[in-house]
Design a protein that fits this description.
two-stranded antiparallel sheet; mainly beta; 4-stranded antiparallel β-sheet
């Protein structure tokens, strides 16, 4: 089992009902067994850090 933390420092470019989402630079941290994460510093140990973009409803990393 794993847990994900996500955040962004900006609003989505497109976020409207009936329109595909466009949102850049979403920071993700994936926790796995034995890893830890500090919400205050947005840093972790033993997990995986990466970013996601959503362009016209399609997620890429």
């Amino acid at each position: 089992m794993f847990h994900l933390f996500a955040r962004s420092n900006q609003a989505p470019s497109v976020c409207q009902s009936g329109t595909p989402l466009t949102y850049a630079n979403i920071s993700i941290y994936k926790l796995t067994e034995g890893s830890s994460f500090n919400l205050n510093t947005w840093s972790g140990s033993g997990g995986l850090s990466y970013s996601l973009d959503v362009n016209n409803g399609v997620v890429t990393s």
